[in-house]
Design goal:
Structural class: alpha+beta
Low-confidence stretches: 16-32
Mean pLDDT: 83
Strand order of the largest sheet: 8-9-10-11-12-13-14-15
Oligomer: single chain
Largest sheet: 8 strands, antiparallel, barrel
Helix content: 25-40%
Number of strands: 15
Shape: globular
Length: 434
């Protein structure tokens, strides 16, 4: 089952995909080379309800620094309200156009670390880095190397990497520092990786920060669009008139799309900060909070006016109440029985429904207990000692009970953070039957 955060994240990504179509890139005037990465650090603290939260920003010019500071302050304020306390000191690293994205940097590192004859300690570090990256991909349901089968998202995810913000572990941040020292020259960076020692990954002290976040440059979608736009306006897909109209539509809605993209970026930072404080939450709380935060920043077809901060704080307050209620009775998948009589469950066979929902059918076929939604393929459930039924992957349960003042059954479907009751409507009826 795809997460709420993923669903909101994907919708925002689809809106934001063409956001930078008419935005001109910033000046690429080179800044003088600093002697040390930390020479570009500046403390930009924010005070919330009297408590100062230290935020450090790494930026190469004043414009980037002001943008990153304002960006971080807005998110940290909501994170403080969510946590009811400080989220801890953080570091925001804002990238520049033409620089290699951290994902590509540590993919190169892990490839070198896993090569035959490599240092076992480096291999161990690479495995830890891969685990943290896998957690990030799993939480956001984003896998740049996965074959794309989603018709709603026909773009190769790897073309979007340069526009993706992401949290950095100390090792990932150090790899970025090394690439920066090599002026993001791929040959120099590759040579450095070939001669890498464990101590080289510990030169910068990132342990002073509770969270470290990489923020791509504001114009990062420009490079993405060079690859994506030819697909959108491919010869033969649109006629010349429709092509002009499509370009005009993108330009017309640029403020809305840009607003959605910015909300998405803030949502990833918000999720990252909460994830670094996950010991304060029950499992799944962070994902649910991240989803409502992003949703609160979305334009809904028009530019959002008013107080976005207030809207975000109100949304997470409501979700915290939902989380508290869920924690009282969380979804727990029971173990299926090994031995049972299939005929014991014949009384539950039937069609179940509720207004606004597709009908569900519970039926027995080939000695299997099957549950079908609408015209979808059926899912097999197994009886448990608790009296309900569970799927093989333990992602859902169904439980039958007598409806109030009735001899007919009702069935409650439960999944993680979702539950709904359906009522008996009659004998099994399948939607694809004549």
């Amino acid at each position: 089952m795809r997460s709420l955060l993923y669903t909101t994240f994907k919708k925002a990504s689809l809106v934001a995909l063409f956001s930078i179509f008419t935005i001109l890139p910033e000046s690429l005037t080179a800044a003088p080379k600093a002697r040390d990465f930390r020479d570009y650090y500046e403390l930009e603290p924010i005070t919330v309800t009297g408590q100062e939260i230290p935020i450090t920003v790494f930026a190469r010019n004043g414009s980037d620094r002001r943008y990153a500071t304002k960006f971080a302050h807005k998110v940290v304020e909501v994170a403080y309200e969510t946590l009811e306390g400080t989220p801890g000191p953080g570091l925001v690293i804002i990238g520049r156009s033409g620089e290699t994205h951290p994902i590509n940097l540590f993919e190169k590192f892990t490839e070198k670390a896993h090569a035959p004859g490599s240092n076992p300690e480096l291999k161990k570090i690479a495995e830890e880095l891969e685990r943290s990256f896998e957690k990030w991909k799993e939480k956001l349901n984003f896998n740049p190397d996965e074959e794309q089968e989603d018709e709603d998202m026909p773009i190769d995810p790897r073309t979007l990497i340069d526009a993706f913000p992401m949290p950095l572990t100390p090792v990932a941040a150090q790899l970025y520092v090394m690439a920066w020292e090599d002026e993001f020259d791929p040959e120099r960076f590759d040579l450095r990786l070939s001669e890498l020692k464990v101590d080289d990954l510990q030169k910068q002290d990132f342990q002073d920060f509770k969270w470290v976040f990489y923020l791509p440059p504001r114009n990062s979608f420009n490079a993405v669009l060079k690859e994506v736009l030819p697909l959108a306006f491919e010869e033969g897909n649109l006629g010349p008139i429709k092509r002009v109209l499509a370009r005009g539509a993108i330009a017309t809605f640029k403020p809305i799309i840009k607003d959605a993209f910015e909300g998405l970026r803030k949502g990833v930072l918000y999720w990252s900060i909460l994830n670094e404080n996950e010991e304060r939450f029950h499992p799944g709380d962070v994902e649910a909070l991240g989803a409502v935060y992003i949703e609160s920043q979305m334009p809904k077809g028009k530019l959002i006016g008013g107080d976005k901060q207030g809207r975000a704080i109100e949304a997470v307050k409501k979700q915290k109440l939902v989380n508290e209620e869920y924690a009282k009775d969380p979804f727990v998948a029971p173990e299926p029985l090994e031995n049972y009589q299939i005929t014991d469950f014949e009384d539950f066979v039937g069609t179940y429904g509720d207004e606004g929902h597709a009908n569900r059918v519970f039926f027995i076929e080939s000695d299997s207990l099957l549950w079908r939604k609408g015209d979808r393929d059926p899912i097999e459930f197994f009886p448990t000692a608790e009296g309900n039924f569970v799927t093989a992957d333990k992602s859902a349960t169904i439980e039958f009970s007598k409806a109030d003042n009735s001899e007919t059954y009702q069935v409650e479907l439960r999944q993680v953070r979702a539950r709904h009751t359906f009522f008996y409507k009659g004998e099994p009826e399948f939607e694809n039957e004549a």
